[in-house]
Amino acid sequence: MTVIILFGLVIGFMLIGVPIAVSLGLSSILFLLWFGDTSLASIAQTLMQAFVGHFTLLAIPFFILASSFMSTGGVAKRIIRFSIACVGHLQGGLAIAGVFACMIFAALSGSSPATVVAIGSIVIGAMTKAGYTKDFAAGVICNAGTLGILIPPSIVMVVYATAVDVSVGRMFLAGVIPGILAGAMLMVAIWIMARVKNMPKGQFAGMGEVWSSFREAFWGLMLIVIIMVGIYGIPGITGAIFTPTEAAAVASVYAFIAAVFIYRDMGPLKGAEGQANTPLWKKPQALVTAWFHRDTQKTLFEAGKLTITLMFVIANALILKHVLTDEQVPQHVAEAMLSAGFGPVMFLVVVNLILLIGGQFMEPSGLLVIVAPLVFPIAIELGIDPIHLGIIMVVNMEIGMITPPVGLNLFVTSGVAGMPMMRVVKAALPFLGVLFIFLIMVTYIPAISTFLPNAVMGPEIVTR
Amino acid sequence: ALADPAGCDAGEMVIKFSHVTNTDKHPKGIAAELLKTRVNEQMDGKACMEVYPNSTLYDDDKLLEAMLQGDVQLGAPSLSKFETFTKVFRIFDLPFMFKNMEAVDAFQASDNGQAMMSSMERRGLAGLGFWHNGLKQFSANKPLLEPEDAKGLKFRVQPSDVLVAQMEALGASPQKMAFSEVYGALQQGVVDGQENTWSNTLGQKYYEVQDGITETNHGVLDYMVVASVDWLDSLDEGTRDQFLEILDGVTKERNAAIAQVDADARQGVLDAGGVIRELTPEQRADWVAVMKPVWDQFTDDVGQDNIDAAQAINAQF
Amino acid sequence: MHAAPGESFVDRIEETLIAVILGAMTLITFANVVARYVFNSNILWALESTVFLFGWLVLLGASYAVKKNAHLGVDAVVDICPLPVRRVLAVIAIALCLVYACLMLKGAWDYWANFANLPQTGGRWFPLGFEDRFRSKSWYEVNDIPFPAFLGFLESAMNEGEAYEKLPRFIPYAVLPLSMALLLFRFVQVALKVWAGKLDRIVASHEVEDEIADVAERRGES
Ligand code: NA
Ligand code: NA
């Protein structure tokens, strides 16, 4: 009962426009003062502990930074060119290329909204010019953008791994097959729709264009290789080099070098408007000045600001988690659910419902921090693999992002496409069906999620 | 199994015990559950214990802060976590300080060991008893038979100056890493090896991702049950004595079982297909020769008298 | 709608600080990878100093985000309310933020004070003066970051002359009361604006608001 009051406070505060972070933190404090006997100082300790005690959360600012360097530079543009060269000649090719580009960008970025902005701001306009309706274009990108959190790296996966203490590397691996599968399902759906509605078809520009666009995009694509090889190594050739957190930091440094010294889209070597970029040998001092250049500072600041707003939500969600634990709420919830005779199937349905509804109000990472510890003990008791549960949760978050009334990707797409929200909602609807089928598949076929991590890293150890 | 909510009654004094392991396989988790059962049976109406396992409430570092703050009453961090409070606990990290667990047990029961329990009282922490886990073994992604085999390897260690110095003495590179990433890091080769007790090696399945475990028995991984002085002082004498007596019983009972737990875990590693390498007396002497000089760096911290006492006890076993 | 960065001198200081902290975190972590993989060595204080910087970044940045209305929130309900209702909701919302900041400030002070050899405040939620007796924790050190020699004067000032091997905790923890005081200050500023009717909401609806504003701008130009 008391828990319902707590969640009532959280939701009530949010709906009247209190920042999510404050809603979470303040509700927890009030709950603690009312029902608990723990000190206010423990709240401050938990706030500090959100950063100091969770080494894995460090991956979040680093992946945000890497993604910022990559989008400030014109990497998205190059990825789109490569995607069009590969699949643009199919019926509905530009739309399929948009999905393909979202998948590639998702492998560079840890966030869905970031993927929508990077790809959508170019592709939606291009599709409209090529004769697609704006609604169709927005619907495609709005959906494909959700892959940002399913295809690794993923901020939401980092948060899940931290909340339930599983390996981030394992979660990332688990997202690979589902990510590719979801992307493929979207592409097939588009292709069928395109055949039925006779949508435009591009010209195949030949292998030459595929090759030259690949070369253009190469340095951006290398980031994916660095992250994957760095975390997992190449079997038989090299061991891994860094932990997922370190991979994120290395990715940031690499993205900076690629953007400033290779692509020269930003920084001291970037040519003025309409002029060619300066080669490094003509301006060797750039090796030093690049680190302090205005563009570098601006990218660091933008990434820092995003880190602040996201992490302030997560840190306050961790306060809520701490208060729930302190009052032994997860045990009570688990007990209630188990004594209600829930089997694995019913349990997963309930989890899906909680997340779909919760996703209406909450920023996905914050929601995960709260829900994961509540359902995790039950999942373990029911013999559900923690990694499988994690992927189910991520796919739910994806769907929450594109379902009305509130969905992160709906907002962002409406902004990027310059369309009213309700039109985006309608536009996204047909593809939402695809994601729902995908959710059911992922929920009931654990192997989609667990096959790759188990093959590479061995079965998950469950210690509780 | 799920820890069932204790459901404390009104008027009962709540004792929160926060720790970082599971509840049914790890020596510490088992002991904590036993303590909970006994307290809730024998002190029903007076006191009620709630156990928070798996770092769900606090990790060891934050536990001690929260204990001094009065937000948690009981914990059992590993001994190296007390370095911040007093450096005498470094004696348990010093390589080859104790011959076997019997010697560790006898040292902890001696005047020197008991003095250590109360050595943190000026900083607000009271030791209530040592809980055993066992002696540590090395493991790596290649066979470790001679100390030279460890040279150049990267070892994951706990944040402890002694353990860092120990790895450096071996010519190995100590690395710090989040606990949840250790298995993956060992498997993927981000780090090459680690050191741990049999129970932890079995529980974390490190044997799966290591070439083998070398039975070095080079260090101690034990815990101390602690409470804040202020909380203990706040209890009325009857309650406190009853509680400490129950705790003492659990401590003796579980510590007496540790040899069996350890042997079972060692056998468990073998049964699961793990490789265990035993050292010949000559090989072992080589490890001692390389690692023992680490003592000199920390003699001032742990006190020559404590070292002498430990060595005198070793001679009895 | 969205505030341009670097509008005032204080803005620029805050923004530079955000950039510098994030840059330092990245470089320290990167350096540790290089140390381990290339030189088979280590920087043992790298992880701990990075997570402290992480805490500073977010906690100090939280007040900047208040100033720039950047904190994430749900404005779907607020959007459909008529202006007078919106005003009332905004007043309630900012009042709740003030309550939050006050309680957090008390908690942050209570947590930090003993580490810094200072008394906690009395009272469970309302500070009723300072406690007259307390157990100092100024000896409490962090785990890995060595004590820098230039701070040697702190040993006599804070630790009864005993040497510190590692950085004492009151230094990194100081960010808590500092940042919560700043947060309270910024919320008060926003509250004044809300009260005067210059602001009808205090949240941003999603994390890429600025980027979308840029896209919209470009679309407007072309
Ligand atoms: Na991603
Ligand atoms: Na939604």
UniProtKB/TrEMBL annotation, chain A:
Cellular component terms per the entry's GO annotation: plasma membrane
Family indicated by similarity: Belongs to the TRAP transporter large permease family.
Residue ranges annotated for the TRAP C4-dicarboxylate transport system permease DctM subunit domain, each copy included: 7-448
Primary localisation category: membrane
Subunit structure: The complex comprises the extracytoplasmic solute receptor protein and the two transmembrane proteins.
Top-rank taxon, per record: Bacteria
Name of this chain's protein: TRAP transporter large permease protein
Gene Ontology molecular function terms on file: transmembrane transporter activity
Protein's job: Part of the tripartite ATP-independent periplasmic (TRAP) transport system.
Entry keyword Cell inner membrane: yes
Organism encoding this protein: Pseudooceanicola albus
Spans through the membrane: 7-35, 47-70, 82-108, 114-132, 139-160, 172-196, 217-235, 241-263, 306-324, 336-358, 365-384, 390-412, 424-447
Topology within the bilayer: Multi-pass membrane protein
Automatic annotation (TrEMBL), chain C:
GO molecular function (one): transmembrane transporter activity
InterPro entries recorded: DctQ, TRAP_DctQ
Annotated compartments: Cell inner membrane
Gene Ontology CC: plasma membrane
Signal peptide (residue range): none
Subunit structure: The complex comprises the extracytoplasmic solute receptor protein and the two transmembrane proteins.
Family designation: Belongs to the TRAP transporter small permease family.
Protein name: TRAP transporter small permease protein
Source organism per UniProt: Pseudooceanicola albus
Classification lineage: Bacteria, Pseudomonadati, Pseudomonadota, Alphaproteobacteria, Rhodobacterales
